[in-house]
Design goal:
Helix 4 runs parallel beside helix 5. This protein has an 8-stranded parallel barrel with strand order 1-2-3-4-5-6-7-8, surrounded by 8 helices. It contains 12 helices and 8 strands. It is α/β, with parallel strands linked by helices. The protein is globular, with a radius of gyration of 19 Å. The protein has a single domain, classed as Phosphoenolpyruvate-binding domains (TIM Barrel, Alpha-Beta Barrel).
């Protein structure tokens, strides 16, 4: 059974870099995964809803075209059994569950993502093991709990207040700090990062709680410079923005170059 490359790196304390997929383009995902540059790609099934057929194609492609070097992950639409099972049955090797506020909600996420005895997902369908490179349903169920990544998004003031209890949930692999929503929850303007006292205090509390328990911590950053800063802060699961942002940035840089050249020609 193909191991979960990203989860292995996190458990060893190594950084894992990836990209948030919002375009839901099969071709874009395939091209990115084939380069072998990123540890994981995450299909956003919440803010940019995608039908299950498209998600299944993208998730399976990420694992297969990279030979298992790039882990297919899914940000689920809601903390419900239906959405979590959808993502995993579609070929994801892990889920990140948003808007977790309490330990009870954290326990439900684990319950729906894992098989007994850690969870209650059940043997169910015959296809979820394909992303792990095995056609044996039995072998998959026997080893899946070891390889499925369960991450929880910490992005509200309530979650920060309950962080210790949330992180003590058995079966949890990672906490992901959502900076935009956390800023909003704290009554601050939305931002990827800031030096606002309320925000830095919340981040320090989450970081300390994760460090004490040896739980990897993730977040999203706009570029490599910010990634280096978050690594220094103890984050090891880092999203280097989104595919749409990089496509738009590349297009804008080309347009700026064309505009500069055009203005130069007009003045010569």
């Amino acid at each position: 059974m193909r191991p979960n490359h990203t989860l292995a790196k996190l458990r060893q304390g190594e950084p894992a870099f990836g990209l948030w997929l919002q375009s839901h383009s099969f071709h874009t995902a395939r091209i990115i995964a084939a380069q072998g540059l990123l540890d994981w790609l995450l299909v956003d099934m919440e803010h940019t809803p995608v039908d299950l057929s498209t998600a299944s194609t993208i998730l399976a492609t990420i694992a297969d075209v990279s030979g298992g070097r790039c882990t297919p992950l899914a940000r689920v639409a809601a903390n419900t059994m239906y959405h979590i099972k959808q993502a995993l049955d579609a070929g994801a090797q892990g889920v990140i569950v948003p808007m977790i506020n309490t330990a009870a909600e954290a326990a439900l996420a684990v319950r729906f993502a894992l098989y007994p005895p850690l969870g209650e997902r059940g043997g169910g369908g015959l296809t979820p093991h394909y992303g792990f490179g095995t056609t044996s349903h039995v072998a998959y169920i026997q080893q899946a709990n070891r390889e499925v990544l369960v991450g929880l998004q910490i992005e509200t003031a309530e979650a920060v207040a309950n962080i210790e209890a949330i992180l003590d949930t058995p079966g949890l692999d990672m906490a992901f700090l959502g900076p935009f929503d956390l800023h909003l929850s704290l009554g601050l303007p939305p931002a990827l990062w800031s030096e606002a006292a309320e925000f830095t205090t919340a981040v320090a509390k989450v970081t300390a709680a994760c460090r004490q328990r040896g739980i990897p911590l993730g977040t999203i950053v706009p570029n490599g410079t910010a990634a280096a800063q978050r690594l220094a802060d103890g984050f090891t699961f880092i999203s280097l923005g989104t595919d749409i942002i990089h496509l738009l940035s590349s297009l804008n840089s080309q347009l700026e170059a064309i505009s500069t050249a055009s203005n130069h020609n007009q003045h010569t």
